[in-house]
Amino acid sequence: MKTGVFYFPTDYGIDPGELGAALEERGFDSLFVCEHTHIPVSRRSPFPGGGELPKRYIHTHDPFVALSFAAARTQCLRLGTGVCLVPQRDPIITAKSVASLDRLSGGRFEFGIGGGWNVEEMEDHGARYPTRFRLMRERVLAMQALWTQEVAGFEGEFVKIEPSWLHPKPLQRPHPPVLLGGETDHTLKRVVEFCTGWFPRAGAGFEPAEARRRLDAAARAAGRDPKTLSITVFRAPPEAAALAPYREAGIDRVLLEVPDLDRDGILRRLDELAPLARG
């Protein structure tokens, strides 16, 4: 089982390049970064975690820019979005960003995606909360066509792209892994239809063996080989004993949280977590 981290790449935290280098030096597998394009001040959408919205949500770098700095400072570290809010992104521009980062990093990018929770944020991008997952599906399918076909177009309910060339193509074939966040049965149906991995959160009641069983059952029901689907668990518990059941269940990767601290505080925390990366 691989061990990586996730981080809100803030403008007041550690430089993404330095973070990437520090993670690679300590033996971590991957760095996944979170995304919010902006936060409308109306705050109509309550924070899912309860209470006030943490400061880090308002201060995040663009994930592809942040990961490019991490890519330039590392050789082996996997680089991912955790998650990219696809309903808020133009699919052609995003396809170009994914392919460019994958090629320039030597094929190290992983495309973690999600539908989002902040209604007013997505509305500013022209997306609607009730249809965000249908929109996400079409945009992912359109991007996959652009990555894998010399001339690609798409015609759907929300996405319409005339036959076009889009280069560069990703270095990974057929394209970088697409990991979908969420925990519901609807999420699993989407994973087995158009993704290569599942990206659940390790919240209250999460059982790694049950997660593996659910994904395998969904794959078999859709006629897909479960071995073609990975599981990366977001915000896994940062203790060796608590992670043992994840390894036993066949979880492919766990992501530990990099805290919202200053540079020195983050580096100290990485030193504390490093034994888990090597374990």
Could you characterize what this model shows?
The protein has helices at residues 16-25, 63-72, 91-104, 119-124, 132-148, 185-194, 208-221, 240-248, 263-278; strands at residues 2-7, 30-33, 78-85, 109-114, 152-155, 160-164, 178-181, 197-199, 230-233, 253-257. The protein is of the alpha/beta class and 279 residues long. The strands form two sheets. It has an eight-stranded parallel β-barrel with strand order 1-2-3-4-7-8-9-10, surrounded by five helices. Helix 1 links the parallel strand 1 and strand 2. Helix 2 runs parallel beside helix 3 (91-104). The longest helix is centred in the middle third of the chain and has 17 residues, at 132-148. It is globular and about 50 Å long. The model has no long low-confidence stretch (mean pLDDT 97).
**Averaging pLDDT over every residue, what do you get?**
97
State the strand order across the main sheet: 1-2-3-4-7-8-9-10
In terms of quaternary structure, the protein is single chain
Number of strands: 10
Distance between the termini: 9 Å
Strand content: 15-25%
**How many DSSP helices?**
9
The arrangement of helices and strands along the chain is: EHEHEHEHHEEEHEHEHEH
Query: Ranges with pLDDT <50 over ≥5 residues?
Result: none
Q: Fraction of residues in helices?
A: 25-40%
Biggest sheet character? 8 strands, parallel, barrel
Rg is 18 Å
Helix and strand content put the structural class at alpha/beta
Q: State the shape.
A: globular
